[in-house]
Amino acid sequence: MLVSLKEICIEAGKKGWAVPQININNLEWTKAVLEKCEELHSPVILGVSEGAAKYMGGFSVVANLAKSLHDSLKINVPVVIHLDHGTYEGSKKALEAGFTSIMFDGSSYPIDQNIAYTKEIVALCHQKNVSVEAEVGAIGGEEDGVTGNGEVADPKECAILAGLGIDILAAGIGNIHGRYPANWKGLNFETLAKIKAITHNIPLVLHGGSGIPEDQIKKAIGLGVAKINVNTECQLAFAQETRKYILEGKDLDGKGFDPRKLLAPGVAGIKKVVEEKVLMFGSNNRY
Length: 287
Ligand code: 13P
Known about the structure:
Largest sheet: 8 strands, parallel, barrel
Bound molecules: 1,3-dihydroxyacetonephosphate
């Protein structure tokens, strides 16, 4: 079932679990994520950054790939094709290409500009029943050129954005994309609670889901986080398993160079991470 993220995230928020957003990079990635989530009866949001879409050949390639795999693999769990950290122009292009959900990331703009662009994107997307995620208070780390410094969002700005008709809100609460540094202070739960209290009950998103300890994930879900994004951990697992295969000389053994064999351990690595996250977020056995 291809859907927007609206209903599943509202449902998750009410019942105290979170929908996983797993970012994808190619056919193997997409297939691995869909198969594992179907097996676990978990809804899934396929996250696609503009950089990943460019790498795969464009927004329509991604949308068609995800739709075709969804159909051919007979996936029954809800699947969302979601633009991750979209620019103003990119958001409009992904919408045209058939994405079922758009994140417009205006966090690098002054708040007034972020508000104006977000409103416009909401109007365009809602005409097509496509959901919108907005962001305020940049998420730390580096993701496809959108940078931030581990900012903590201003709850008042969060309330303004939440009032624009968006479906879900991403707000910086000390979370960081990529690997967490050893001296990371952890999530700022005080700010998260303040944001939740004044954002009209819309579900919240936690970016930078890789490497956040389970107790902090659970606490964040308890405070209103209904969607958690994971990218780096899948990339690390894929690289680690592929590296092991090659270092063990398996690519030199018989037909071990066949991409279907060469990429299999990496795919298994992605599936293992997805399973861990689904169980941690409590999204299994929901559909
Ligand atoms: P990680 O790469 O840290 O898991 O973050 C993913 C993310 O937030 C995508 O928007």
